């Protein structure tokens, strides 16, 4: 069973997919065979995504289910990474284990820093709304 937070994250990825295709909610809901209302609920994270919708997104748009559910990997199944990304991956793969661990630590620190920046922004917005209330 999905949590509310997971549903919201999946909804964000649905929004990203739809906007990247240049579609409105009615167009994408029609293309995958669900009602507009149901699609809107998925995109807002108010409804747990169904196996049928995951399959429809895969067969209609080639959306990778792993990306849709977790955000990991590429949005489209069998999508090749950009040449620059592939070059970086190859460079990292050529490093010894201790060098790889240092690279992974830097990447993890960057992810945590980005998350902290988001949280600070949310706190500032909350404080801003509290001052006006």
UniProtKB/TrEMBL annotation:
User: What organism is the protein native to?
Assistant: Beggiatoa alba B18LD
MF terms from GO for this chain are: DNA binding
| Entry annotated with the keyword Transport | no
Offer one Pfam family short name for this entry.
HTH_3
Output this protein's name.
Answer: Putative transcriptional regulator
HTH cro/C1-type domain segment(s)? 14-68
Instruction: List keywords of the entry alphabetically.
Output: DNA-binding
